Amino acid sequence: MKILVVEDEAKTGEYLCKGLKEAGFVVDLADNGLTGYHLAMTGDYDLVVLDIMLPDVNGWEIVRMLRAAKKGMPVLLLSALGTIEHRVKGLELGADDYLVKPFAFAELLARVRTLLRRGSTVIAESQFQVADLTLFLVSRKVTRGASRITLTSKEFTLLEFFLRHQGEVLPRSLIASQVWDMNFDSDTNAIDVAVKRLRAKIDNDFEPKLIQTVRGVGYVLEVPDED
Ligand code: CA
């Protein structure tokens, strides 16, 4: 799942991104309000963590504009302003939750997970299934038939990406940019290694094989045609 963090304070922004990435999310950081607003309007985010005090467009204004544009992803406001009036203002403008700085990362993560669980888009697609493989987004569980499969957080993100694009041929460079937030122009070997590890867990001991290699391009996840 993909999260946008809008935070102008470099240290807090990095801390949030690092923690959320470690928790298995794909994270983009915007360090000013305008960039944050544009990313939120155009990107495909499941949730926005939004600082209120930003130098250009503030967080209140961003929530108001997102809701006016019918953007419904959950928004978690972050602010040093902890008075009741501020909290109420945030929620009235359409934010879903409000966390006062300083906060413990564990609390932020718990609130992010709660919001994602509650979000209507997520409920509609809280799990993905192909053949006998199921990925549960919220509990972060993967099963194949009766077997529970243990994945690293990166492998989970990679499998989720494949499942969101079932049947689409995914070039290595796209996988690199969407799952690793990086450009692997030269070194796509890292992608092959990661896919190999994932296959070892979800395909090696099972039939049918779900991840197919598309020579010279990348990979596709689909149930192969029967001969
Ligand atoms: Ca700030």
UniProtKB/TrEMBL annotation:
Q: Which domain of life is it from?
A: Bacteria
The family database entries (Gene3D superfamilies) matched by this protein are listed as: 3.40.50.2300, 6.10.250.690, Winged helix-like DNA-binding domain superfamily/Winged helix DNA-binding domain
The protein's matches in InterPro entries, at most eight in alphabetical order, are given as:
CheY-like_superfamily, CusR-like, OmpR/PhoB-type_DNA-bd, Sig_transdc_resp-reg_receiver, WalR-like, WH-like_DNA-bd_sf
| Record keywords | DNA-binding, Phosphoprotein, Transcription, Transcription regulation, Two-component regulatory system
Q: Where is the OmpR/PhoB-type domain?
A: 125-223
- Annotated SMART domains: REC, Trans_reg_C
Q: What is this protein called?
A: Copper-sensing two-component system response regulator
Annotated source species: Buttiauxella ferragutiae ATCC 51602
